[in-house]
Amino acid sequence: MSGGGLPRRPTMVDVARRAGVSVKTVSRVVNGAPNVAPDLADRVLAAVADLGFRRNGLASTLRSGQATATIGLIIEEIANPFYATIAAAVAEVAREHDTVLVMASSEEDPDREKHLLLDLCSRRVDGLLVVPAGFDHSFLRAEVQMGLPVVFLDRPAGGLLADTVLLDNRGGARAGVERLVERGHRRIAVLLDSMSVYTMRERVAGAQEACAAAGIGYDDVLIRDGVRDPQAAARTVAELLDRPDPPTALFGTNNRITVGILGELWRRGGAEELLGFDDFELSHLMPRPLTVVSYDAHAFGRSAAELLFRRITGNRSWPSTTVLPTRVIDRGVRT
Amino acid sequence: MSGGGLPRRPTMVDVARRAGVSVKTVSRVVNGAPNVAPDLADRVLAAVADLGFRRNGLASTLRSGQATATIGLIIEEIANPFYATIAAAVAEVAREHDTVLVMASSEEDPDREKHLLLDLCSRRVDGLLVVPAGFDHSFLRAEVQMGLPVVFLDRPAGGLLADTVLLDNRGGARAGVERLVERGHRRIAVLLDSMSVYTMRERVAGAQEACAAAGIGYDDVLIRDGVRDPQAAARTVAELLDRPDPPTALFGTNNRITVGILGELWRRGGAEELLGFDDFELSHLMPRPLTVVSYDAHAFGRSAAELLFRRITGNRSWPSTTVLPTRVIDRGVRT
DNA sequence: ATGAAAGCGCTAACAC
DNA sequence: GTGTTAGCGCTTTCAT
């Protein structure tokens, strides 16, 4: 081989040698510390440029014990607009604190979530923001006790007392379904991802509260669990509407499901009324009336991130739970 | 103060002392190295659990000289579905390589981009994926020469020879506008973000090629620069359509602009034909015919990330430029 | 204002 | 199998 070896990264020792100063002086110049003679500083800067020196932040952090200026964000699915909006809001707050964001998606897998969280702990992030997929987060207790701030977002933690920021899932779902009921619907189908997810349980409970209050009996057939994606939602709608006793209204309990319902209703020209949890861009241009339970997703992400940074910067008050309001945007047909 | 001091993080020395072994043995156990007597391993594990020890990955990386298992991704705007899809694809590939993703948005600000990139270099990421906002990336040359892989995505780098993955912006725009021309349109407005952005220049050039080929003269009035967001797009549409010589078709050169045009056309009930670059979910449910220049955004992100990891794992071939195809999805009215 | 030496937490290299 | 020592690149402490 003709020596394709890459040039070794220069260190402060290399820079010091080249500039004819001590490493400490290089450190001072590189970090903008005061009290360095201008001529020495110039020589150091020249050596830095010549050598292509870039300070090793890992070594710096290790020795100084400073924060890594990094926070971790674990969500379920990056491409979903709900999580993308949260990520954008968190990144915005992180930037305001000169901190970078390590982002990963758990894909609703508790094992993967645990692995990711512990990995981030090893990387000594300054704080963690988690949309939990698992049900037991006690494995984080030691880290939390040693001062690692963790904020849970959208769903509560399991087995760990920690800051939590939630949406008013139950109230929003109840208010949405009440609109359907007011317009005379008695057979309302509810399509949901999985009862193992906190938000789904809450939204279903809210829907059932509204039904119960209106004296509508519970019908097993209308509650459809396991609707994981838009395709599944479309299939479920087809199946429901082909029954002898079809629903007259449908509740999509998250944005993916609502999109799937919408597509299938459009395809078959169904006139059933639709309620969705989560608003989305252009929802007002949909080819049919669509009522949505909406909220400020950006503010949601920001609240959680701001709380995290309050902890990082020393706030030691008792763990809090914040519930953000939702509101119904009613585009249904008036009767 | 009554000693609110947090317990110090235990180190391998603490674990070793507690387990009555040497640090090296702790290191072996913690890293799953072979040749440790089971009873010693058990004692170490017990001490680890008691103390809540978590290996400091920064120190480990520093000493061993191993990779950080981190890549950086710089995009323009996290919440935009185009970038969110790319981020999801990149995260997917990163995961396949047991690597985490540091993500940041430059917000189209070259200074911020430079700052972020150099920060990531200090953090010793294993590679960089960049949707460039700036025009000069020569400040990365030293890093690249020392072996840092960098892949540019969606737009080419400035002043730096590096791997690049692009879309066929020009060909896609040309093909899209050709459809409009085929249907008899002679006055086609083009709304674009900024001519300083590479993709915009290419898309406008493609549109003009199609017009020129059809003998359509250039009309200054119809090329609208500076359309930064959906609101601006809506305003521009209103202004164009209120002119004495309004366009009969509009070309939105990115997803944000197309959304804005769509809203305004819907609001005023305009019958003008619409072409958009970038497809989006539910575009087929829009209340009017909408032709889009589409491509596989997920594959786009994956290609770039896979190329990056090929570099990280040692591929040293000449920098490549890949151009991914687009296709027109024609939902326009047949004449 | 500058430098020498020690050491952050860990692992490589070499004992034993 | 296990332990000792040195040192990754940097910053701290304390001289001068």
TrEMBL record, chains A, B:
Gene3D superfamilies: 3.40.50.2300, lambda repressor-like DNA-binding domains (1.10.260.40)
Lineage top rank: taxon: Bacteria
GO MF annotation, one: DNA-binding transcription factor activity
Domain HTH lacI-type: 10-64
Keywords recorded for this protein, A-Z: DNA-binding, Transcription, Transcription regulation
One matching Pfam family: Peripla_BP_1
InterPro entries from the UniProt entry: HTH_LacI (IPR000843), Lambda_DNA-bd_dom_sf (IPR010982), Peripla_BP/Lac1_sug-bd_dom (IPR001761), Peripla_BP_I (IPR028082)
SUPFAM superfamilies (alphabetical): lambda repressor-like DNA-binding domains, Periplasmic binding protein-like I
PANTHER family assigned: HTH-TYPE TRANSCRIPTIONAL REGULATOR GALS, LACI-RELATED TRANSCRIPTIONAL REPRESSOR
Entry protein name: LacI family transcriptional regulator
Species the sequence originates in: Virgisporangium aurantiacum
Gene responsible for this protein: lacI_7
